[in-house]
């Protein structure tokens, strides 16, 4: 489904239907200014990590050009001079660093559920969340706000399968979640590790050896089929045996002949596997053509 912008997602979640974009446009023209100390971050904000270098870069831009995009806030209801950030915490942090005394804001009356959903949509559509933050935000919408996967998908402009795959990441162990959140493991790594019997040990091995997503998938598959043992308490013993010089040379020769990535895995008397990795359908067609041309 193609994205139709922030307004469509917000309109659906706030029950505005066709008036969503008009309502947001009216809000956008009603920009106020608030002392920066009146504004506080929302602890329920889906985005938890803010890169210092990115904040510093934005602060430098703000010092030169000012804060061009207002921050969306809502009254806390506890103090007339206190507002929670709904969208724009990164800008608020950078404005603080730039030592601004006042910032432009759009003030909206929103309840906790509306604010949580707007914050998620704003972050997801700007690609500001890491995979773990995104997964946990979807999970909160599903559990706390009783949103179905199809409804979440429609709101954020993603496919239902994407939402389902992301939400599965919340089943990872705490240690692996942290590694994904900190950027040490990619979304692809996390999805592969999710199906492992001992995900923490697989994650440690992936980081130790610098395995690609494809290699991680192969490792998990081999462990599941009994080709590689991964012990719960002894992850280092699970590493595949080092390939000898002859095997590596053979891999290079075949790779050069085919122009593709090759991997050979010996399993002793049980034989082994020869894996040819292709990058696109043209390469797959070329592999098939060459195999069919072999003499029988």
From TrEMBL:
Q: What Pfam families does the entry give?
A: HTH_ParB, ParB_C, ParB_N
Per the record's keyword annotation, is DNA repair included, yes or no?
A: no
User: What SMART domains does the record tag this protein with?
Assistant: ParB (SM00470)
What UniProt keywords are attached to this protein's entry? Chromosome partition, DNA-binding
Gene Ontology terms: cellular component: chromosome
Could you tell me which InterPro entries the record lists for this protein? Answer: Chromosome_partition/occlusion, HTH_ParB/Spo0J, ParB/RepB/Spo0J, ParB/Sulfiredoxin_sf, ParB_dimer_C, ParB_N
**Which Gene Ontology terms describe the biological processes this protein takes part in?**
chromosome segregation; positive regulation of sporulation resulting in formation of a cellular spore
The segment(s) forming the ParB-like N-terminal domain are 32-124
MF annotations from Gene Ontology: DNA binding
Purpose = Involved in chromosome partition. Localize to both poles of the predivisional cell following completion of DNA replication. Binds to the DNA origin of replication.
Q: In which family does this protein belong, per the annotation? A: Belongs to the ParB family.
What's the protein here called?
Answer: Chromosome partitioning protein ParB
Biological source species: Aquisalinus flavus
């Amino acid at each position: 489904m193609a994205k139709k912008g922030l307004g469509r997602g917000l309109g659906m979640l706030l029950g505005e239907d066709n008036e969503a974009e008009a309502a947001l446009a009216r809000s956008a023209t009603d920009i106020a200014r608030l002392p920066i100390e009146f504004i506080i971050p929302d602890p329920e904000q889906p985005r938890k990590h803010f890169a210092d270098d990115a904040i510093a870069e934005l602060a430098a831009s703000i010092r030169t050009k000012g804060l061009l995009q207002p921050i969306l806030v809502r009254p806390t209801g506890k103090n007339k001079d206190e507002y929670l950030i709904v969208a724009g915490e990164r800008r608020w942090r950078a404005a603080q660093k730039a030592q601004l005394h006042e910032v432009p804001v759009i003030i909206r009356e929103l309840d906790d559920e509306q604010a949580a959903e707007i914050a998620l949509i704003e972050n997801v559509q700007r690609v500001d969340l890491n995979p773990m933050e995104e997964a946990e935000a979807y999970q909160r919408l599903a559990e706390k706000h009783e949103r179905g996967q199809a409804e979440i998908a429609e709101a954020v402009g993603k496919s239902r399968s994407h939402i389902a795959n992301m939400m599965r990441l919340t089943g990872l162990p705490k240690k692996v979640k942290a590694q994904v959140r900190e950027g040490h493991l990619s979304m692809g790594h996390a999805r592969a590790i999710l199906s492992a019997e001992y995900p923490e040990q697989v994650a440690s091995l992936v980081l130790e050896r610098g395995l690609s997503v494809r290699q991680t998938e192969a490792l998990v598959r081999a462990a599941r089929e009994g080709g590689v043992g991964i012990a719960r308490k002894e992850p280092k013993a699970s590493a595949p045996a080092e390939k000898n010089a002859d095997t590596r040379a053979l891999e290079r020769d075949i790779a050069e002949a085919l122009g593709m990535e090759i991997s050979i895995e010996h399993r002793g008397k049980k034989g082994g596997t020869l894996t040819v990795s292709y990058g696109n359908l043209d390469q797959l067609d070329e592999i098939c053509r060459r195999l069919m041309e072999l003499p029988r």
